[in-house]
Write a structure and sequence with these properties.
The structure is a single chain. With about 110 residues, the chain is mainly α. It folds into 2 domains: about 70 residues, lambda repressor-like DNA-binding domains (434 Repressor (Amino-terminal Domain)); about 40 residues, no CATH class. Helix 2 crosses helix 3. The protein starts with a helix and ends in an 8-residue tail after the last helix.
Amino acid sequence: MYDIKKIFASNIKRIRKSFNYTQEQFAEIIGMQWKSVVNFESARNLANSENLQKICNTLKIAPHEFFLTVNNNEKNVIEKINLILKDMSKEKLEETYRVIAVLNDKSHFLE
């Protein structure tokens, strides 16, 4: 059976680290208390819908990203991609997003 709190904890920590934020920086950016981030990452608490929406809007991440289960190889690839993306210009990021959306047959996400 899946432990949703642990999946959320793992993913929120991975996402935070992919942006190279400390827990304190992450909390400030998403407009929450540092202790909330600690509780999320330690699987003590799960974000309520309002907080999840705030996190998703701030980081421009779809809510389902926090509940995906991925194996370690996929995590490594995602982390490598995030390292490349974090240094890209806005224009390059938008171009990359379009390519990924088309490659994954998700072109309906294009704005």
